[in-house]
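Worked Example 4.2. Read the sequence first, then its structure tokens.
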Amino acid sequence: MDILHLIDRLEEILNESRPLPFTHNVIVDEDKLLDLIDQMRVAIPDEVKKAQQLLAQRDRLLAQAQEEVNRRLELAKEKSDQLVERDAIVQSAKVRAEEIIAQAHTEIQTIRQDADSYVLDTLMNLEMEMDRSLTQVRNGIKVLKEKA
């Protein structure tokens, strides 16, 4: 179950609660609240699993990018070796091979930066959602403790 949905349900429970006159306290259905907290305990590990999947996806992207760089380097080396056999264009082949290698390195760096940025943004959003959830749970607990 989506953690944001559970947070919305927590808010509904608080909004549906009866207020105590002349206070900021409310009477909350304890069974509903405890059931919701149990659901949140189950849902949060799912959010963590999603974050781990994002990290694994990032690692796969980096591995694929590295394979592509290696393939391009190998192609560049083969092309360079072939060109070396021809005296008239040896110098040109070396320059082109270096350009291909530099371009491959630039592309892998860009891919790494994009992957890191994507994962960082996603993890930061997840952290904010989890912080918000935790704050709401703590506020609910505080309200319940104040009533007790």
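Now turn to a second chain, presented in exactly the same format:
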Amino acid sequence: MTNHEKKREKKHVHIEDKNQLQEKYIELQILKQQVSSLIEQKHAIDERENELNVTLAALRKLDTVKKGDEMWSSIGSGAFVRSDIKDIEKVLVAIGAGLVVKESVPKSIEILELRLHEFSDINNEVVQQINTLVSRMSKLETELQKIAGKEE
């Protein structure tokens, strides 16, 4: 092989390495965006789980409340009104699709515990997805370092 052929082959390998470097870098950036999005989803799920746990704790203590007791009731967005307890046997529970039903406290607890379990399952799936992506990112970073080392 002549010197000219060797130089041309080396230049061809260099261009391939540069293309690989760019492709892997772009893939790494995409993975970082996906991880960031999944982390945001996880935070939202965590908040929802915390909210459900607070609601479940309140429902479990409802039997210590007496009819006629006063309390502060949420009207949304962190605003509350003073109210009197009229009924501690039934509560309104959202069941999805904008539907709300009147249920007994034990049934309401059951519904919310099921929802909490569903959120926990989703949270676990999101964590697995994050771990998979982070593992792939780590491999990509190693590959990027190897390719960049060849170029020096």
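Notes for the reader: DSSP finds two helices and four strands in the chain. The helical segments are 3-60, 105-151.
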